[in-house]
Amino acid sequence: MNIENLLKKTLSSSQYQAINILGEQFDRLGIRAFLVGGTVRDLLLGNSITDIDIVLESNPHHVIAKFDVKYEIEIVSYSQFGTCKINLLGQIIDLAMARKEKYPFPGDLPVVEQASFEDDLARRDFSINALAAGINRSDWGELIDFHDGLADLTSKRIRVLHCESFEDDPTRIFRGLRYSARLGFDLENKTKGLLIAGLEFLPLLSGVRVTSEIRKVFSEENSAAILNALDQYKVMKYVHEGFPSGSDLIKRRELLGSLGIDSNNRDLYAFISLISPTQRQNVIVRMNLGNEFLKFGSDIGRIELLEEEASRSDIHDQLKQVSETAMLVAGTYVSTKTKSHLDLFLEELNNINLLIGGEDLIDLGMSQGPRVGDVLSKTLAHMIESGPLSKSEQILVAKRFI
Ligand code: CTP
């Protein structure tokens, strides 16, 4: 089967032209190259193409150096593992060296070695992602389907290529459920059994890989369906017992949707807010989320610990270092009384400032020293309890503490 027609119809003219130029250059250098993975899958599904992935039987970084200079190819990035992102005619294209992968231990990143294009297809996650199409002149647009991916695309089936797929790389559990919900496909029966058997390997994934998969789920249009599928297979609980359920996440995300919180991290804030206070810092560390999220976790912990009967100064002390984002997030689920403490802080206490300084107290006859600071703190504490004062009123109050 040849998909030249699909290439012409689905790709933009600069995408088509860029792939053509690459094919011609690879021909000149005697290198086999193919469109692969999601690019071919989405072409066959008639979806527009945003990511162009090409595999070649050589290290792209070395090959690009030999391209005709007139094409002004820009290298956007490259890695030591034989991948290279280039910009050609304004199109970002991923070039990867055909490779074999060995997984020293379940959940580890693979050890990669250069291999044939056939090996490269065989290492992939699902049959629908193991389709390819030639871009050399001799086989331009020729569909390559060693693993019956086309039949699975037609029958709307997600199927792994071999029995160890999920064990080798448990992120494929997330991936399979993502594709299933995104495309409206079913897991093939044997694949479903293997996915369930692979759940026990999820705890072996590094925090960075887990977080990357969770972020990918959040970024999908149909993320609620994926979160429900994650619940169905108890994926979250397998990764870490402290992870929240997908259904709770769906609800909490909706509450946060209209609050103007940074949309890059909003879903992760919802995620963290749902973890029990005793597990929260452990989970944040497990996910390798870094200091910004550790601070967020401890901020919402402070809010949750606010006593219902807290005084104005307790509220001020507890919240003065807490971020506004944490207050917005916690405000969606704490008790009405705690919410009123948050409102009091944001609307009034946070705006109470000292308008006097040490020099004013020295003008009043105090000598320099730590007592100046004491008097200023007491003046501020007085206002926190009684309300804001003008500068002259603050001086009167300060005089009482001198
Ligand atoms: N791949 C894999 N196993 C993984 C990750 C990726 O086999 N754990 C392979 C698949 O063949 C996949 C390709 O690498 O098609 C590219 O990966 P990625 O960019 O993550 O996926 P896409 O197929 O492009 O899908 P998406 O539309 O989600 O970007």
CATH class placement of the largest domain:
Alpha Beta
Number of strands: 11
Please describe the biggest sheet, giving its number of strands, its sense, and whether it closes into a barrel: 7 strands, mixed
Bound molecule kinds, no repeats? cytidine-5'-triphosphate
Query: Strand order, biggest sheet?
Result: 3-4-5-2-1-8-9
Derived from helix and strand composition plus strand pairing, the structural class reads alpha+beta
Question: Uncertain regions: pLDDT < 50 for 5+ in a row?
Answer: none
Work out the count of structural domains: 4
Could you explain the architecture of this structure?
- The mean pLDDT is 92.
- β3 and β4 (83-88) form a beta hairpin.
- It is built from 22 helices and eleven strands.
- With 402 residues, it is of the alpha+beta class.
- It is elongated and about 95 Å long.
Q: What is the topology?
A:
Elements: H1 4-10, H2 13-29, E1 33-36, H3 38-45, E2 52-56, H4 60-64, E3 74-79, E4 83-88, E5 91-97, E6 99-102, E7 111-114, H5 117-122, E8 132-134, E9 143-144, H6 149-154, E10 157-158, H7 165-168, H8 171-183, E11 186-187, H9 189-198, H10 207-219, H11 223-232, H12 235-239, H13 246-256, H14 266-273, H15 280-286, H16 291-304, H17 312-319, H18 324-330, H19 336-347, H20 358-363, H21 370-386, H22 391-401
Parallel strand pairs: 2-5, 10-11
Antiparallel strand pairs: 1-2, 1-8, 3-4, 4-5, 6-7, 8-9
